[in-house]
């Protein structure tokens, strides 16, 4: 009974997104006028969800181009869950391989930042520590501790284009600066309180957060950061991360045998 129901449901979903029905019961439904109306409603709802989740991409390419592209994406990657808040996880990868998007090589990176905003927005609530909390630790103990990254923090280094500047301008509804320098940029997005905030991030800071997220102690994380950006001011970087709320806690690994 369960297998039969599951088969029907799978075939029904496939038919909603344009695939030929492989179940006779679904085939009978597809021929009814009401199914076409329902299919169009579901399809348009998926396109609307992409439009809501990728506002910077939408502003860059315009509504007509976006909705036509979204329709192709939805046909290839229909939603896998009822909630559409998370829909579009692989939309940046789709754009990277989408031939009409090739004249805008930065578009996949902008889409990635849009989706990082979604992830930061829906991440669990958590507190964060301050510079004062760090100052209470002895240096010899602190270097063996781990800075736990806030659960809402999302960051990325874009080596080939100023993706953050382009994304921020379109997210905030302003023009991209005329003097834009075409070089790599990093970005940090997080929700320390009720709203998602964002700011640029250096390659060293990105490496530091990568190491912290990998449970490295602070000494090891600092070495990785300086390898990527030898002239970075490590103290200023850590202070900045604490000030914006990117660090949730300081953790000391148990070294007891």
From TrEMBL:
InterPro entries named in the record: DUF2063, DUF2063_N_sf
Domain (Putative DNA-binding): residue spans on this chain: 8-95
Pfam families linked to this entry: DUF2063
Keywords: DNA-binding
GO molecular function: DNA binding
Highest taxon of the lineage: Bacteria
Keyword DNA-binding: yes
Name of the featured protein: DNA-binding domain-containing protein
Native organism: Dyella flava
